[in-house]
Every structure is written in C-alpha cells, then in structure tokens.
Specification:
The complex is a heterodimer of chains A (238) and B (263). With 238 residues, chain A is mainly α. Chain A contains 13 helices and no strands. Chain A has one domain. In chain B, a hairpin with a 2-residue loop joins strand 1 and strand 2.
Chain lengths: 238, 263
C-alpha cells in the first residue's frame, strides 16, 4: 500500500503542479465569467428566473467544454515530456507501462474534478440534465477520455506537442462552432463531443457517449502501440 | 539591431519552422474545414440573413471562406508558434544564440518574423485550395484576386496578431497553460455578443475579421451585431490589432533583455 502511495506521489510530482492546475484554472475562469454575467444581469434588473435559466445553460457546459480541452493539452505535453526517457528505456519495467500509468494518474485527477464539478453544480441547483448518477458523469467522461487519448496519441504520432495541441484546439473550437452542422451526419453526430451541452434532449445521447468511449479505446490502443517505438521516443521533437 | 543580423536570424527561424513536418501534417488535419465550409455555405441554395435571403456573389463566397478559415486556422497558427521560444531553452540553444551577432531585439523580432512567415505558407495553401473549391462551383475567375484581397485584410492581420502574442506569452508562461488560455480566449472572443456574456467580438479589439468583411470587402450578411462598419472603422480595427501585436512583441523584447541581463 505504501508503495502505491509513494508511486502516486512520484507520478504527481513528475506531472507537476502547474500541469495539474491547468484544468483547475479552466474551471475557475469559466465559473468567474458565469458569476460575472449573473451579477451584471441581476444589477441591471434582469428577472431572477431568466438569470437562473442562463446559469443552468452555461454551467452544464462547464465540465463538457473545459475538462476535455485542459486535460488533452496537458496529456499531449506529458507524453513527450520525460527528461530521463533514455534511463527509463534501460529499466526492466517498460517505459510504456510508466507512461500509461502517468496518463492514468492524470485521468484520475480529471475524474475527481469532473465528479466534483457536477456534484457542486447540482448542489447549487443548476444541474438540470435528464440523467442520473452514474450515467450523468458521462457528460464529461466521454469527451474527456476521447480528447485525452487523442492528445496523447497525436503527440506521439507527430512527436510534437505544439502540433498536437494545435489540432486539439482546432477540433475543440470546430466542434463548438460547427455543432449544428455536425448533427446532420451520422458519423459526426455520434462522435460529437458536446452533445450534453448543445442538444441535451437528443435521443442518441447514450449512443454518442458510448461511441466516444469507443473512439477513446481505439486511440488508447494507438497510444499503446506508439509507446513501443523506442527509437522514436528517443529522437528529438520534430 | 543591425538589418543584416535581423534578416539572417529571421531566415534561420523561417527555415526552422518551415522544415518541421508537424507544421504540414498539422495543416493537413485542418482540411476537413474545407468540407465543412463547402457543405455548410456553398451548397446552400441561398443564404438567410436578417436582411432577407440572398444568393452569393463571388465576393461573398470568398469573404465567407476567409472568415471561416480565420476562425479555425488562426488557432492553429497561435498554437504552432507556441513552442518556438520555450524550445530554445529546452534544447539549450539560448546561450548559443546569444553568442552570435545581434541583440535581444533581433532575437525576438527575427523569431517572430521568421516563424510567422513560415506558418502562413501552409495556411495560405489550404486557403488557396478553398478558393479552388469556390472556383469549381462556377463563381468565375474574379475569385482569385478577391480571394487574395480577403486573405490580406482578414487572415493576415489576425495571424500577425495571434503570432505576436504566441511568441510573447510563451517567453514567460508555461506553454500548456498558454495554449489552454489561448484556445479559451479565442472561443470567448468569437462568441456572439447577444449571448449576454461580455465578449470582445464585435469590438475593435476583435481579430475575427468581421469589420473588414463588410467595411473593406463590402460583402453582405455575415453578422448582425456590427451591421455596416465603415471603411475607416475596418481600417481602425486592423490598426488596433496590429498595434496590440506590436505591444506584445515590445513586451517580449523587454523580457528577453531582462533575462539576458540576469545571466
């Protein structure tokens, strides 16, 4: 047991507090904006009911928008960041196992944040989505896993953090801006990341969440395969 | 800052960026927006706006393409440039760069000019393919000069602006944090201002190209919230964002000076 905690602490330190704080900044910034809007509306005589409806509409986007973006950018930075990768490759324990464990620790942290966010929003009475625990956690879990897996495998595939975060950023913004358009085609509607935020009443919500989990599994398998290319891991960032 | 050192350093930075496979592979990944653009915009029988439903003239087809590609691709420009400064420290190049002719100003401005110049090239190629799509839909050869004009007044100022902040911020900020904040900023800055969230979009500080769309290109029907900006307002918008970019670069230069002074 003690070994597990030592390892966990070690991995957390390798990931670094700054990386772990990126999703926290995301959440704090988002909440601050929502509070600012609500405060401004209330002081300008907007009816309570309408402010409440706005809060519900904005806050359901918080976990689904923010965790995937912050988590995936950190994931793509982490997979290439180990400064003693050469040393790792000489150890009996495969680097692959270490990298996957590190990704697991990051995902665990995102999960803790995700559950906490949903439960706090619910506590304040702003969570009005039709699903119950534990299904409702798929609002953030499915897109977060899919994008984290995408970030990690893109970073390994392109051997470049900047390029992989560029693609992540474009995917994220594109999915938000072209959301309505992406609902028109089966292939894109089942892999649409922000369905709970944009079309919470969609009949294919569960199908969409499961499809996203499927995408995450495929991408994780790709990451697993890419982590086995030792020469590529040792090479410089391209 | 000698001109020779500046051009030499800028050429070095240009080659460093243009030879990165990830710049090209990354751009290839954004090509689905071509499909999105075509299906969402060009294939409509007519375009509904508050002023009524109208058919696209060539200028509208290219101006829409410029706006849509700017919305998506400027993100990529900012993120692809985000590792240029931190990379110098990571691969321990900063000391070597300081030993060659040129001042802190040379290093910052050359990095900016070279990197942004190289990053614009694949983006322009993607944009040109989009112009080809518009041409193939029978909009006529005027699409080419109009398309280049739209790129110059909408995309180029936005990329110069974004690139300057990318170079300046990553000089002192943790790169993943910058990248996250930048994507968040971009979404926030493109929100529809009627959404009751205070946003920069629709103001002179916005780099979305909405002012140039109507004010310079005289295209119809994009946004309802800056209905008819004048030419002067559109030029002011471009001047403001370029000025902000310049301010960011000056800040980056001062930081670099301070950093070199400490060593």
């Amino acid at each position: 047991m003690a070994t597990i905690f030592t390892r966990l602490r070690y991995e957390l330190r390798i990931i670094g507090w700054l990386n772990l704080l990126v999703p926290v900044f995301a959440v704090v910034g988002f909440v601050a904006l929502v509070v600012l809007v609500a405060w401004d509306d209330l002081h300008n005589g907007v009816a309570n009911a309408s402010v409440n409806a706005d809060n519900i509409r904005y806050l359901r986007r918080l976990p689904e928008y923010m965790l995937p973006l912050a988590g995936s950018i950190v994931a793509s930075a982490l997979t290439l960041a180990d400064p003693v990768c050469e040393l790792h490759l000489t150890l009996p324990r495969a680097y692959r196992a270490t990298a996957v464990r590190r990704m697991g620790v990051l995902t665990l942290w995102l999960a803790v944040l995700g559950v906490a966010i949903v439960e706090v929003i619910r506590l304040f009475g702003f969570w009005h989505l039709p699903w119950v625990f534990p299904q409702d956690q798929l609002t953030w879990a499915a897109p977060t896993l899919a994008l984290v897996a995408l970030g990690a495998s893109l970073a390994l595939l392109l051997r470049n953090r900047a390029a992989s975060s560029a693609i992540l950023g474009v995917v994220w913004i594109g999915e938000i801006l072209f959301g309505g358009f992406l609902q028109q085609y089966d292939a894109t509607k089942y892999t649409y990341l922000f369905l709970s935020s944009e079309v919470p009443s969609a009949g294919y919500w569960l199908g969409n969440r499961l499809a996203l989990m499927g995408v995450a599994v495929v991408l994780l398998a790709m990451m697993w395969a890419l982590l086995g290319r030792n020469e590529a891991l040792l090479g410089n960032e391209s | 800052m000698s001109r020779q050192a500046l051009s030499g350093a800028a050429r070095y930075e240009f080659l460093m960026q243009i030879r990165r496979p990830s710049l090209w592979v990354g751009t290839l990944f954004f090509s689905p927006i071509l499909f999105t653009f075509t299906r969402a915009t060009l294939d409509r029988p007519c375009f509904p706006t508050i002023e009524g439903c109208f058919h696209f003239a060539p200028i509208e087809a290219v101006a829409y393409w410029a706006i849509i590609s700017n919305l998506i691709v400027s993100i990529a420009v900012g993120l692809l440039m985000a590792d240029r400064f931190p990379r110098d420290f990571r691969v321990k190049m900063d000391d070597a760069l300081q030993a060659i002719p040129g001042t802190a100003a040379t290093r910052v401005f050359a990095k900016y000019l070279g990197t942004v110049g190289a990053t614009i090239i694949p983006i322009f190629i993607l944009y040109a393919v989009g112009l080809g799509v518009i041409l193939s839909r029978g909009y006529g050869p005027s699409v080419i000069p109009l398309g280049v004009a739209a790129f110059l007044v909408i995309n180029v100022p936005a990329m110069l602006f974004v690139g300057a902040f990318s170079i300046a911020c990553t000089g002192f900020m943790w790169t993943p944090l910058f990248q996250f904040l930048f994507v968040g900023y971009w979404l926030w800055g493109t929100l529809n201002p009627t959404e009751s969230i205070p946003t920069l979009s629709g103001t002179l500080l916005s780099s979305g190209g909405v002012f140039a769309f109507t004010g310079i290109l005289r295209a119809r029907g994009y946004h309802d919230y800056v209905p008819h900006p004048s030419l002067a307002l559109a030029l002011a918008n471009i001047a403001v964002i370029l000025g902000l970019g310049a301010l960011a670069l000056v800040a980056a230069w001062r930081l670099q000076l301070a950093r070199e002074g400490r060593q």
